Amino acid sequence: MELHIAFALLKATFAEGRRLGARPLSAVVLDSGGHQVAGAREDGAGFARLALAQAKAWGSLSLGLGSRTLSERAPQAPEFFAAAASLLDGRLLPAPGGLLLLREGMLIGAIGVSGDAGDTDEACAIHAVEELGLEYAQ
User: Fold this and answer.
1) One short Pfam family name for this protein (predicted)?
2) Most buried in the list 6, 25, 71, 126, measured by CB within 10 Å?
3) Is the pTM of this model over 0.85?
4) Class of domain 3-137
5) Residue 90 pLDDT greater than 90, yes or no
6) What residues contact 113, with CB distance under 8 A and at least 6 apart?
7) What is the pLDDT of residues 60-87, one digit of tens each?
């Protein structure tokens, strides 16, 4: 994950949030090893939103599934998700807004967005990924 791509993802995510009239957003971009490449929060975003965005991205990356899929599976396996959250030091948030990032089918990282409803967070992330010509997994 190159820094200029991570910054472009943040910029496009925030621009889409403004276009949609979303609440102030926070977004985090991780490389494929789970290291933060870039993260930012818009003016007015709650201070915990960066941590929530990172948990969406990190949880997705560590379990190999987008956070929407994780949110759909969590009710059927509460013990697994409780254990996973504990083992991942709380860096797991099974709610829409976290996407795996792919380039030519290869995993390059993850993005997590938090600040509005999960569907809006996810829509902003998807828009950014598509604008940059990348692929994603939900």
Assistant:
1) HbpS-like
2) 25
3) yes
4) alpha beta
5) no
6) 13, 25, 26, 27, 53, 56, 97, 98, 121, 122, 124, 125
7) 999 999 999 999 999 999 999 999 999 9
